[in-house]
Structures are given as structure tokens and as C-alpha cells.
Specification:
Number of strands: 12
Shape: globular
Subcellular location: Cell membrane
CATH superfamily of the largest domain: Nucleotide-binding domain of ferredoxin-NADP reductase (FNR) module
Radius of gyration: 21 Å
CATH class of the largest domain: Alpha Beta
Strand content: 25-35%
Distance between the termini: 34 Å
Number of domains: 2
CATH architecture of the largest domain: 3-Layer(aba) Sandwich
Protein name: NADPH oxidase 2
Domain FAD-binding FR-type: 19-129
Structural class: alpha/beta
Membrane topology: Multi-pass membrane protein
CATH topology of the largest domain: Rossmann fold
Order of helices and strands: HEEEEEHEEHEHEHEHEHE
Pfam families: FAD_binding_8 (PF08022), NAD_binding_6 (PF08030)
Largest sheet: 6 strands, parallel
Amino acid sequence: TWKWVVGPMFLYLCERLVRFWRSQQKVVITKVVIHPFKTIELQMMKKGFKMEVGQYIFVKCPAVSKLEWHPFTLTSAPEEDYFSIHVRIVGDWTEGLFNACGCDKQEFQEAWKLPKIAVDGPFGTASEDVFSYETVMLVGAGIGVTPFASVLKSVWYKYCHDATNLKLKKIYFYWLCRDTQAFEWFADLLQSLEAQMQERNNAEFLSYNIYLTGWDESQATHFVVHHEEEKDVITGLKQKTLYGRPNWENEFKTIAGRHPGSRIGVFLCGPEGLADTLNKQSISNSEADPRGVHFIFNKENF
């Protein structure tokens, strides 16, 4: 028995030592941005930190808790000179971080007053493979939209600087959320990308659909009244918000018809139930002929 126990215990001890060593490396918070609906963005720098799109880190704030580590998806792109996370205030630890960063105060906070932060990572996810395909479907449900902030930023940086060597040619993005207000910062990112793509006359590079799954009768009435306006009244985007849930069978068949004979990457960050649905659709809509269309499913569950 001891032979079977010693091995895993040794590996666990090594992992803890590595995390302790990483936690001692200096992390500098360069900016704290307060977004609507109690969401804060921490922009940080750390010597030797290298990341890929869609990765995540573990964060510890000793001023809040000396023992607790919490995972957060990186929302910055590798091309940026900092790395960032978005934290929604939903519990005691996040509330403590909110207060420690001085976000509960009205006056401007000096940088030296910001709390110390320990970072472990980054750690890889399936989203890193997004640049291996010419066509991708990105599906984010609720807070699962955060990895795609990094993906979309990085794709746009690569497109602007060296579009000819970028393999990725088309993105279909789906965002399913109960309340778009909780993630208003992401709608701002989509607005910026939408405006820049129109300036470059390439509005077709990114197709996106936002589905509001939690809505009431008053919201539906408001939607009907303002439906003819140029921009959506909820997100401010040209693409109108849809209500309910997507018909995945129709979506897959439509995309398969537009890209015959190609490998299409399907990336999900969302619940297990949605993962099962997309996996089945990926299999059923892939052709047996090797030269036909194939959907390759990748998931990250929470």
C-alpha cells in the first residue's frame, strides 16, 4: 500500500512547492477598471509571464485570505503588454477583493495602496486550438463567455498585423446569457470589434448572435417597440439580441452548407448539458466521407 501512496503524495508535494514558488514571484497591478454591475477588471504584469488565448490562472489575495486560491479566465490577448481578469462580485472573497482594491471608494486610488496579488499559472484549455481551423464556432454560456474575450482580441490583433498568414478566416460566435447587463463589458468589446471590422470593410469576418434566455413580458414588449431601430436597445450592437435558445440543428446545417469539405472547430465554455447537445450535433452533422465537412468538438465545462 505504501508504494501506491508514496508516488501520488510525492507528486502532490512537488505541485505545492511549485505553486508556493510561483506565489512568491512579484505581481504588479497596473490598473483596476470598474465595469457596470459590480464587475472589476484587474490588469497585471509579472516578469516572465507568457500566455495563450483562453487560458486561466489561480489568484490569491493575502489581504482577503492567506490560503484561498481562486481560478479566473484570462481576458487579455497574448499580444498585449499586460494580462487581465474580470471578476464579478458574487461572494465574500470577491467582495473582499473589491474593497481591498479601493473600488468601494469614490476618490482615485494610488497604485501603492493596491493589495498584493499572487498568481499561479497560466494553465491551458481547449480554446488554445482555435487557430488550427479556418472556420470556428465559439459558444459561450453566461460567464463562459470570458475565454472568448481573449480569443477575439487575439484574432483581431493577428488579423490587423498579418492577415495573410492567419489561417482562421471565419468566426461564428454564440453568446447565451440570462442577463446581458451582468456582462456589459463584453458587449463593449463586441462593439469595438464591430466598428473596427466595418472600418476595414470586413464585417463578414465575425458573425455573432446573442441569445437572451432569461426574459420577462416587459422586456419582450420593449423589444417589439424598438425592434426597427438601427442598433439593439440592450447591447448597442447592430446585431439584434435574440430571445430564447438557438436551434442548434439548423445552425449546424447552415454552417455546414456554407463551408463544404472543411474542418470546423466547435468550442464551448458552458454547462455539461449544452456540451452534450453540441457534441451530438457535431457528430450527426459530420460526413462519413473524409473529404466532406467535419465538426470537431472541444469543451470547457464549469
